[in-house]
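Input record, target 12 of the design panel.
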């Protein structure tokens, strides 16, 4: 492990660049180059985070999960496993809702100015 956070950061940046290149030129869903770049990136990140903690007592706000942790984290209320990739319907604010909110604000502003 690199104890110098600056050197670990340089390694992390290189790993990010290699991951980008491998992703941009991937040949199929399970391209070994992408998988290797992914694993190298995770290792480089963990090394950077550990060296930052050792040197300065600080950590990044990021976490690397393994597959088992991801499956446990994304288990839904019914016990079904699957990835959650967006807002629930009641949390999703459409453009129509925003326009209605703006119209309501304008009406309230007009009412308060006429009083």
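The sequence produced for target 12 reads:
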């Amino acid at each position: 492990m690199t104890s110098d956070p600056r050197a670990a950061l340089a390694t992390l940046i290189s790993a990010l660049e290699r991951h980008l290149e491998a992703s941009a030129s991937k040949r199929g869903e399970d391209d070994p180059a992408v998988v290797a770049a992914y694993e190298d990136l995770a290792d480089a990140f963990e090394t950077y985070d550990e060296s930052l903690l050792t040197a300065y007592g600080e950590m990044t706000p990021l976490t690397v999960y393994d597959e088992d942790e991801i499956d446990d984290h994304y288990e839904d209320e019914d016990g079904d496993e699957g990835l959650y990739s967006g807002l629930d319907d009641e949390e999703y604010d459409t453009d129509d809702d925003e326009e209605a909110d703006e119209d309501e604000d304008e009406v309230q502003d007009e009412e308060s100015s006429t009083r």
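Residues 5-85 form one domain.
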